[in-house]
Amino acid sequence: MRKNRLYRVLGLALLGFALGVALTQGQQELDPYKEAERQRELFRQTAGILPGELYAAQGEELFHAKRGPKQVSLEACDFGLGPGKLEGALTQLPRYFADTKRVEDLETRIVSCMVRLQGFKPEEVKRDEVKALVAYVASKSSEMPINVVPRTSQEIAMYNLGRELWYHRAGDRDMNCAICHEAYAGRKVRLSPVRSPRQGLSNEWPAYRFEADKLYTLQDRIAFCYESVGIHPPDYYSEPYIALSMYMLAEATRGKNRFTEMPGFTR
Ligand code: HEC
Questions:
Q1: Could you name the domain of life of the organism this protein comes from (predicted)?
Q2: H or E segment at 216?
């Protein structure tokens, strides 16, 4: 289990966090939502299409193409609503899948379908392809209500692990994710208004981040939070991401939140 390492590295966040909060004092005001809206309009006017839509189009092509050693498409991939049913699929992920006997989020599920259906070896699965496929599948859940309710024992265990990781206090100064996203919820950390899971944290991913000029999945965004406070993030598709996503999205469900436009467009 990688949990111990995660706890240890969370401790390293203490100093970075303290510095980040201190540095925001006195900086000039900037509304990141208005700025994102302005950038989005610029893209619409100049390119006629949003970058997130380009990723989704690439994902759509990958989804329907016969690929891998078995030369089949991903059309038989079941995201929880039946083979090939994509409408609203993201709204109920992560969830337990009987075929892999695992709780999977969208990214992990795409990888397991590429492995099980198309015959790719896990190490052959390209991260950029997974991201484009995430954008495509997510685009079918645009603006829909989030509906993640842990029911099976495996889902409840995953939710509990996520909550444990979220609240686990580590290091000399007793830090955790909750300190930023709950104690500071509604306030600003590094110019960004921070939200709590009940306020819908995690409802805009996958999203195109114009400051980075890249598509970020939810796993990428969690990894970015780790990195921004000096923590080495866990490997993609590993349990801590699935657990934290399960926790955040189940809480977002309790707060009656919807997804934004999918893929999102944000700073
Ligand atoms: C140093 C404070 C800090 C810590 C610790 C921290 N975050 Fe964040 N997080 C932020 C800030 C600042 C943002 C950017 C908010 C924005 O731009 O909307 C953010 C953004 C996010 C987002 C995307 C924002 C959204 O609206 O969807 C997610 C998801 C997230 N954090 C999850 C986590 C998780 C999980 C942890 C613990 C493993 C964590 N964060 C720890 C400060 C923190």
A1: Bacteria
A2: strand 214-216
Q: Which of 100, 225, 236, 258 is catalytic?
A: 225
- For residue 82, give both structure tokens: 């039946």
Q: Is 56 touching ligand 1 by the criterion CB < 6 Å? A: no
Using pLDDT thresholds of 50, 70 and 90, give the confidence band for residue 207.
very high
| Max Cα–Cα distance, the chain, nearest Å | 58
111/130 Cα distance (integer angstroms): 7
Burial of 128 (0-12, 13-18, 19+ CB in 10 A): exposed
| 227 Cβ neighbours under 8 A, 6+ residues apart | 233
Q: Is 161 in the pocket of ligand 1 (CB under 6 A)?
A: no
DSSP at 92: G
Q: Which residue lies with its CA nearest to atom 36 of ligand 1?
A: 177
Distances from the Cα of 164 to the Cαs of 86, 144, 195, in angstroms? 31, 28, 19
Range of the structural domain that residue 116 is part of:
3-266
Assign residue 153 the CATH number of its domain. Answer: 1.10.760.10
And the tokens for 146? 């989030």
Residue nearest to atom 5 of ligand 1 (CA): 177
Backbone angles phi, psi at 206, to 5 degrees: -70, 145
User: In the predicted model, is pLDDT for residue 242 greater than 60?
Assistant: yes
**Tokens for 247?**
């926790």
Between 17-21, 43-47, 79-83, the lowest mean confidence (pLDDT) is in 17-21
Single out the residue of 184, 87, 181 nearest to residue 140, CA to CA.
Answer: 87
For the question of residue 225 being annotated catalytic, the response is: yes
How many domains does the chain contain in total? 1
Structure-token match 């939200």, residue found: 195
Measured distance CA(161)–CA(49) in Å, rounded: 39
